[in-house]
């Protein structure tokens, strides 16, 4: 089994205010994973002054959307720069089925694959109540209930088509995101244990069979 086979590749789904960021930070700290955030990668590319960064800079200056090919190139560049990482968490990408297909192809060309898509399942009404309380206490203009409702709606629309895609691959794992931070972390940790078991030579394919039931 190669080193790339042993690397973990996770997608962490969760709407705004669901605690996705908190869980991602714990995965980074506890499992030596690297979080690949689309926004962070684009900003870092521009700051680097590289040829790819200059392309990204010009696109962003025009106000155009950065193409999927460029985002994939940035992801591959980060994988190249971090050969000793235990694995990666993909944050903000993919958002559509074509993006998911492009990511699968890019990883496959490197002998890698997405191991699991961990979805934090939350109650939209409870999230709205949480935001209303936070807004009443802090009064942040960029964190008001109206704008949050739009963000939440956009998230639900974007992720809905992706769920069947990963279910068909036997890679979707759902975690109750309404529990405490510690409980959610424990559930996420359980998923990682099953992934690692599946990646062992003796138990290869176990994880896919488990989640295809």
Automatic annotation (TrEMBL):
One of its GO terms (molecular function) is ATP binding. Catalyzes the reversible transfer of the terminal phosphate group between ATP and AMP. Plays an important role in cellular energy homeostasis and in adenine nucleotide metabolism. It catalyses: AMP + ATP = 2 ADP. Its EC number is 2.7.4.3. GO terms for cellular component: cytoplasm. The keyword Nucleotide-binding applies. NCBIfam families: PRK00279.1-3 (NF001381), PRK14527.1 (NF011100), PRK14531.1 (NF011104), PRK14532.1 (NF011105). Residues 37-66 are annotated as: NMP. GO terms for biological process: AMP salvage. AMP binds at residues 38, 43, 64-66, 92-95, 99, 140, 151. Its main location: cytoplasm. It comes from the Bacteria. InterPro entries: Adenylat/UMP-CMP_kin (IPR000850), Adenylat_kinase_CS (IPR033690), P-loop_NTPase (IPR027417). It is found in: Cytoplasm. Belongs to the adenylate kinase family. Monomer. Pathway: Purine metabolism; AMP biosynthesis via salvage pathway; AMP from ADP: step 1/1. ATP binds at residues 17-22, 134, 179. Consists of three domains, a large central CORE domain and two small peripheral domains, NMPbind and LID, which undergo movements during catalysis. The LID domain closes over the site of phosphoryl transfer upon ATP binding. Assembling and dissambling the active center during each catalytic cycle provides an effective means to prevent ATP hydrolysis. This is Adenylate kinase. Keywords: ATP-binding, Cytoplasm, Kinase, Nucleotide biosynthesis, Nucleotide-binding, Transferase.
